Amino acid sequence: MDKSWMHADRRSKEFELGFEEFLKFAESNAVNIDKISCPCKKCCNVDGFSVEVVRDHVFYYGILESYKVWRWHGESMYDNGVESESESESESVNGDPGMGENDVEVGESEDEEMSEDSNEFLKFVEDGDQPLYNGCDHTTKMNFLVESFSWKAKHVVTDSCFGDFLELVKGLLPAENLVPLTTNDAKKTLSVLGMDYEKIHACPNDCILYRGDAVLVDAEECPSCGVSRWKLGRDNIPKKNVPAKVLWYFPPIPRFKRFYQSPKTAKNLTWHDWGRKKDKMMRHPADSPTWKLLDSKYPELGNDHRNLRLALSSDGFNPHSMQNSLYSCWPVILVTYNLPPWLCMKRKFMMLTLLISGPKQPGNDIDVYLQPLIDDLKLLWNGVEEVYDAFRGEYFKLKAVLFWTINDFPAYGNLSGSVVRGYHGCPICVDQTRPRRLKKGNKLVFMRHRRGLPRHHPYRRQAAAFDNTIEEDLAPVPLTGEEVLARVEGLNCEFGKREESTPRVRIVDDQDRPCWKKSLYSFN
Fold first, then answer.
1. Which of 459, 432, 434 is closest to 447 using CA atoms?
2. What is the pLDDT of residues 22-44, one digit of tens each?
């Protein structure tokens, strides 16, 4: 089926005729004619409307050009086949203007060719290419699993309901079909793709994770605070094998390997080297001083442009909407900066690595939950051997570095250990913050921002316009990494939330107020 009209101007006759054919195709395959998935750029096939509303949406917002396989409108991925290399290269996604003359416009395909470097993965592909049942010529086992899990995620189907669905389909198809009998069997089949995860039990008070040491893995209660590992029932009796708190960990290294097993993604991961316009303008993180400093300071990292630069982002959200306003769940996401700007913030490339369950936010104890991720990041810093690059057809040693963190100011304090409120609330000025407490409101205000102005700026002498003082001091010089390390090395921090037996003593002398709450986990 010709889909070239999707890239034409939607005011043209070509687009109009092609879109009418699409509507006829979607209408003929629709289960509910009033709930056809809308492929406009706003709805992205999430919402369903009547044909008239879909037509208005597409002509107003434009059609989703990356929607190459009309899976939500009755087209089978198996019937459509995988695009040829010449067709996929002709498709394009327009990036930001001014990206450079060497930019290669890259289309996003639903199906990407994967390499055959792994025997386990090759067996999975050979097994998945088998017909779903004897005589079936329109779908395969792998296609059925992918489509069914996509349907499960779209309609938020529970595992038990999905298991009943598999039993029903298996009973309706001819004998000796390859449909998995249970949800667990289906998940085990897809786990070969590197989408596995770990459920790690945690102390309810955020003291420890039950991992690593064999004694700790088998422990029934927290050795730090003595709280039971298991959830308490109504009679305060622990429920065996029902953890009180769970950390979901999704290892990033297998997924990074999968990135490089796709020729198209492996090529995009080096775009910052061959496709970026290098004219000393800031368009990409590769143009930043931090990127250039790392390349010069660690040549073994900068010499191979396939090495990854990552950003870590974390914040709390309430998964129960307004039903429970006190519940806080914290995801930790890795962003890959090697990709072009129009791809690095796509959902498919934003990698969920940790999911910290509630009901309480981890706060300063988030270091406890970052342990498995930090261990993998250390492995990536030292290098992971035998990673296959499908684009160049060779094995290489993959390295990665954590570049930045993306978070709001309170989460910045939790991750870095810096005090972000009070007398030393500025992480740049630290003990040179110099706040002032209001006499009537009894609140701290920060009025020394004029220190950042040039030495002879007129605002420095306009006392009446600010706080009736003339600013003569210079801005504090930010601490270097070595200076920060020297200050936090002696800090002793006990993780976990405990009730304080003695009241806090208010510190009167500003010089005795701490600037850090804990030592950075990375330096432990």
1. 434
2. 888 888 888 788 888 888 888 88
